Amino acid sequence: MSQSDTKTRILDGAEQLFAREGFHNTSLRTLTSLASVNLASVNYHFGSKESLLQAVIERRLLPLNRIREEKIEKVLSAAKKIASPPEAEALLRAFIEPTMEFRNSSPGARDFISLIGRSLTEPDETIRNCFMDLALPILQVLFEALHQALPQLSPAILMTRLQFIIGTMSHVMCMSSHSIFHSSELPPAFDHDALVEPLIKYVVAGLEAPE
Amino acid sequence: MSQSDTKTRILDGAEQLFAREGFHNTSLRTLTSLASVNLASVNYHFGSKESLLQAVIERRLLPLNRIREEKIEKVLSAAKKIASPPEAEALLRAFIEPTMEFRNSSPGARDFISLIGRSLTEPDETIRNCFMDLALPILQVLFEALHQALPQLSPAILMTRLQFIIGTMSHVMCMSSHSIFHSSELPPAFDHDALVEPLIKYVVAGLEAPE
DNA sequence: GTCTATAGATTGATAGAC
DNA sequence: GTCTATCAATCTATAGAC
User: Fold this and answer.
1) Which residues of B touch A175 (CB under 8 A)?
2) Which CATH class is domain A60-208?
3) Which of A98, A162, B79, B141 is a Cys-bridge partner for B86, taking CB atoms 3.0 to 4.6 Å apart?
């Protein structure tokens, strides 16, 4: 088996297990068994379990953030061309839509989205920072862009509401399979595709509420 | 040491550690050491680590849900008296405010709120259900009440938006200490008290957005 | 690069004295 | 009810043969 095969199989398996079972609840034995690689190969290729998590997140998040940033910049430059402020909805759409599209691109991507949605609330700071370090730049870009779109909002309240938006998103991203009301008598069916437009409508309304 | 003392010390310690370190990342040895009780007493009093988690959640969540339900019923009956539908904002306030007030009632309560905020995105279904089983009844009460307040919203979209609201809340509840932008140059200070009103304003606007 | 074997530490749970 | 002592299983990580 070639090196890249082994590395990829480890990354794929880790992505799945970290998302579905949690990082601390996933043992290297379970992982290497699922990935059909040798137990020792994880430490050989990645050095440690934590560095593996870092690699899992980097592999997908860097390309995703590149797409999100491109789309945001496109909205900004289009607005500049007609000398008007950008639309908040267009900016949030540029941020949210690629996430959900990416989620549907493969089963692994689905697990990945669930994993990073969960990383935000991770109590273990080391784990949380694995994700946050890579997410901060794009969030700052989004913050600046939204400030242009809604200059009437104070930076403090804009920041607060952006946090709410991230919270809403990360929750949706985690709910791969389990709706909150899954076991209740209420209408279940937590369909992510059908969720994108309602999600955008919800966060835009919350963001644009009068201060 | 009396039995109830030991039980309480275990519950307090577990609440703190499960919230701050995570359930799987908390060992019984760390817990019993922090609580200054014997290692064996956890299994003696609670049977297992998982049953302990269940007890930790029940101790606080049952009283909190009783308060939330009372406040919701009060809004409903006041509306009934004047023969008008209840206000969505009053209902969400009845749900959210007790949570945040409770959070400030003691350091343990603060950890607890962080713990249940996190439970929703817990990948381990057993753990997630420890919380969900106790949370479902009040969520159904809230759903029914919001349906009276906003009859123009279809049950499906109301349900979806209620999930968004829970997501926003649970994210706020988790952020005891760490703001998303904590390590950035942007204004930090994630003050929960100052967050209640912006949170209510945000979720009400999102909930009442035109369909 | 991949493997076996294992070190060395830690885990949840329990048996049995007091 | 509380303690010590310990079991049996698990864990991450590594050494060394191939």
Assistant:
1) 121, 163
2) mainly alpha
3) B79
